[in-house]
Amino acid sequence: MRTKFVTMGEIMLRMTRPNLQRITQGRGFNDYFGGSEANVAVSLAMMGDEVDYITRLPNNQIGHACRNELRTLGVGTENIVWGGNRLGLYYFEQAAALRGSSIAYDRENSSLMSLHSHMVDWHEVLRDAKMFHWSGISCALSFSASEATLEGLDEALRQGIYTSVDINYRKNLWHYGVEANDVLLPACKRCHIIFGDTGEWQLITGRQVPPFEARDTDYKMDLEGYQQFFDEAQKKFPKTRHFVMALRNQISANHHLLTGLLYTDGVLYHTGIYEINPVLDPMGVGDAFIAAYLHAHSRWQGDHQRQLDYALTASAMKNTIMGDFNLLSEEEVLDTMEAWLAHRVFVRNW
Predict the structure, then answer these.
(1) Cα(189)–Cα(98) distance, rounded to whole angstroms?
(2) For the chain, what is the total number of helices (H) and then of strands (E)?
(3) Which of 111, 264, 278, 280 lies 20 to 30 angstroms, CA to CA, from 146?
(4) Whole-prediction pTM
């Protein structure tokens, strides 16, 4: 019986100035480990799932500290590949009032960039997995990292394992002579679940997504427009079963509105709108969304509305947690979700 999730990608060390300082000021940093697929792995583990995380770490004290933190949070690390030069870094400047956020990357020659396909025994790693999750980031880093990622996808499909992808398009990472869509489009077409934001969905479909311009929770979404968008997307991705979209409108640096869409079997599901004010830390909000959806997809099979409400709630709650990891249990998410849904019904009936 297949019991576990497997995620694969790069984990980095995030450096953030305290007290909303700019990168160019201050004397110290708060540091957090994080990365899209690692964030998904931690979320799944926190919600009670068995999860194995595949990456490459330098065989030094920083790599060991990273491994140890993942272990502490319940993530399986037995199949981490050791080697390479260094753990990648990124410096994150938090948004404040009228000032937007900013990121400076220092990840060149990271251990994951030099990962090769033969370094991972995908047949053994995926042997008892129920789902394999990957993202476009590892495919963007280098040709060899892309080969290793897609080899994992190939093996998962050979073993009949459900596959999930976060499009995770990062324009500034694609530097090794290929266009992102030349890699991502054919790979995404082979996945059962595709997740992305509006810009990422526009990238892989070539179609405009209806805008999300909410200023409050009473905003009326263009559901007919989204239905038409996903009807066309289904034609382009005939093997995909579940199309998941996260939508966010930033009123200010600390005031966001979030909602989500799920399209499956020709039916469009939508949620209400969460208003987050103040936002404490927006990093990893999308990762929290897809992780919670994968958990709910496995936990409440066929209850698509519950799956989507759960995913959006977990994503909204991540805005209140410092660091990249969404440190929430299933019970905590459900309690908040049920209170939110009850409030929505109360307001509607009032």
Answers:
(1) 40
(2) 11, 15
(3) 264
(4) 0.96
